[in-house]
Structures are given as C-alpha cells and as structure tokens.
Amino acid sequence: MAYDPAMQTSGQSDSPPASGRLARWGIGIAALVIPLTTIVSHSFGRSTYPLLLPAIKDDLAITNTQAGFGGGATFVAYLVGVMIVTLLAGRFEPLRIMKAGLSTSAIGLAILAAATSFPLVLAGLAMLSSGGAGIWLSAPVLATQGVEPRRRGVVIGMLTGTIGLATSLVAVGTRGARSFTDNPELWRPVYLVECVGAILILLLVSQSLRTQTTERLPAGRISFDGLRSVPGWLPVTLAYIAFGAIAAGYSTFLAEALETDGDVSRDDVTSIYLGLGLASLIGAPLIGWISDQLGRRTAMLGVMSIIGAASVGVATLEGPSLVLVVILFGGLWVSYPTLTATYVRDHLNDRQFGSAFGLMTIFFGIAAIVPPFAAGAIADDRGSFTLPYLAFGGLAAAGFIALLFAPGRAAQTPAG
C-alpha cells in the first residue's frame, strides 16, 4: 500500500518512515516517467525513420516509392494498434495498455536494429508503430489524472516536449556516431540504442506508475457515443484527419526533400533535425499554455495555419528561409495531436477518453496511409517533392476551414 501521511498518529504509524520516503520518491519518478513514454511512440517510432531514410535507401538500394511503403506501413500498423486499443479501452486500465505498447515497440526496435533487408525494416516499423498506439492513447490519461482542466494543456504539452528533446538527442547521437565511425550510411546502431532505451523506460513504468482503478465501460465494439458527446466533435475530427495526412507525408520525406530539392547536405539535415527537436521542446508546452489561456480552438487554428505555411515553404523556399520554416514546423506540428487530445480530454473521463480519442485516431490513421505512397511515387516520377508539399499545404487549409466550425471557448464546458 502506498504511504499516506493521514494514517499517522502522534504515537504510532501504520507505515514506517522509510516506506513513506519510498512512496514519495515513487510519485516523483512517475511525474518524469509518463512524458518519457511518448519518446518511444514518437521520437523512436515516428521521427527516427525519416532521419535515417536517406542512409537506409542507399544501404538497401530502394526507391522513393519503396521508401513510401515504410511510411505507409508505419501508419497502417498504427491504425491496427489504435483499433485494438479502442476496442479494449473500456476493459483494461490505461497503465496496462501502456505497458503492452512499450513491450511491442521494444520488439520492433530490436527487429530494426538487426534488419538486413527492407521487408525486415517494414516488419520492425509495423511492430514499433502498433505499440506506439498503446502508448499514445494512454499517456494523456495517465498524465492528467487529478489535473485541473485549466492546466491540462501545459501538462499534455509536456508529453510532446520530451519528444522534441529526444529527437534532438537522436539527431546529435546519429551525427556523432557517423563521424566517429566515418560511416555516413550508419543507421542500425541508432535503432539498437533506441531499443535499449525503450526497455529501460518500460522497466521504469513497471516499477513506478500506479493508477487508480476506474469503472469499466462496455468493450468488444467501437462506439461513437463517447466521441459524439464532445462539443464540435465532427469539425475537430475532420481537422485531425487532415493533419494525419499531412504528418504522414511531410515527416516521412522531409530529410529526402531537403537533400533532393533544397540541396542540403546529409550532415546539415541532421543538424536541422536537432533544431526541430529543440523547437518542439519549447513549442509544445508553450502551445499547451496558450490553449489554456486562449482556448483549444484558437491554438489549433494558429498551429494549423503555420503547418500549412511551412508545407508550402518546403516546396518553394531555399537557403536560410527554408531552414527557418522547417524548424518552425518542427516546433509546432507535434503540439497539434496534443491539442486535439486535450480538447477531447476536457469533456470525458479516463476510459471514455481512450475510446473516443482512439476512434478519432482510427480516422487519422486511415488518412495517413496513402500520402507516403503517393508522395514517393510522385517524387520518383517528377524527380522532385515540390508537388506533394504543396498538396500538404492545401490539406492544412482544409483543416483550418473545418476548425472554424468548431465551438469557441465560450461554448465549451470542460469537465473536471
């Protein structure tokens, strides 16, 4: 039993002081561990493949179209994972789902670290991404248990802040390892280190996190009931679908587009990813705070507009201005899923959130399947990524328009 100071009396204690110190230490560790879990689902699961893709392409001699299968497989597997989590969210506690997600992701990273062919890369990405669904759909709940609605934006923003820090560290570590070994094609050891990191985070979660038991909800089918109870669920879901399509295509080929169209060297691309990570480390909590102050929809509109501008910028700009918009995108794009999650979390309890946000993420995943395939095929055909990135800008405009139909702050009534 966790230590509770209220159990003490002046003459005796039901728990020894050492147990109390250990319990307080465990609470402090938990506050650090929850944001670490999203490093596995997003920094390792989403950001590493685009960073390493040029080296993977050269090493395994694959085309942009084939590389697009990697990005597409990531989101197909993520979609499958989301569907499983959505079906089981009413039956299992969020912590149990998170542990399963971390375990699955660690197996995927191990496969990637040993992959000698592209089919093995696809298999590793699939395991990594399906596990990431369990992590991402449980982390916002675990992070906000007992947190006032007016502070949830900052708290959930911290989840993506750590993603930015980890993405920066991966970029720095990759560049250092390539320089030390004089091997610009190095990529498998990066996944090996990430596998070890995922296992350590799983052990921390297992030892430190304890959550309250929540009421079971009906399981075994996917229901719209929880999602429909969220004000403005349809336009917010449509905008999230648009974002899913943008994120899948934009992030998969960013490094390749910078090298192909932006004439950026591989070393400089790695440095840009460092800037992306640092920008998101600051941007995600900042956007969360802005959403707490000005409302979720206002923040979502602002982020969506900048995402669109950055997408067009990759297609049309060069030199320092190109680097600037890429880093600006990096500082803000990771905050959009957390803004959406916070919007939904404001109106639902722990298990309702897992089911409702899981359903939204199913639509996100479906929208994310095609763009990597299409962008890779277009780039192979035209020798450029200009057209795909202009299309991503158009999708952002569609998402912005959808959000205009969501209720403003005055119409929202966050639940405690």
What does this molecule look like?
- The chain is mostly helical.
- About 80% of the residues lie in helices and about 0% in strands.
- It has 15 helices and no strands.
- α3 packs antiparallel against α6.
- The longest helix is centred in the first third of the chain and has 44 residues.
- The protein is globular.
- The two termini are about 25 Å apart.
- The N terminus and C terminus are likely disordered.
Number of helices: 15
Residue share in β-strands: under 5%
Mean pLDDT: 81
User: Which residue ranges are poorly predicted, with pLDDT under 50 across at least 5 consecutive positions?
Assistant: 1-28, 410-416
Relative helix content: over 70%
Backbone structural class: mainly alpha
General shape: globular
- The span between the termini is 27 Å
Order of helices and strands: HHHHHHHHHHHHHHH
Oligomer: single chain
| Largest sheet features | none
DSSP E strands, number: 0
Radius of gyration, in Å, reads 21 Å
Q: Can you tag this structure with a few keywords?
A:
416 residues, mainly alpha, 15 helices, 78% helix, 0% strand, globular, disordered N terminus, disordered C terminus
Task: Walk me through the topology.
Blueprint lengths: L16 H44 L3 H25 L5 H21 L3 H27 L7 H30 L6 H21 L16 H4 L4 H20 L1 H7 L5 H29 L1 H21 L2 H15 L1 H11 L4 H33 L3 H18 L13
Provide a compact summary of the structure.
By secondary structure, this protein is an all-alpha fold.
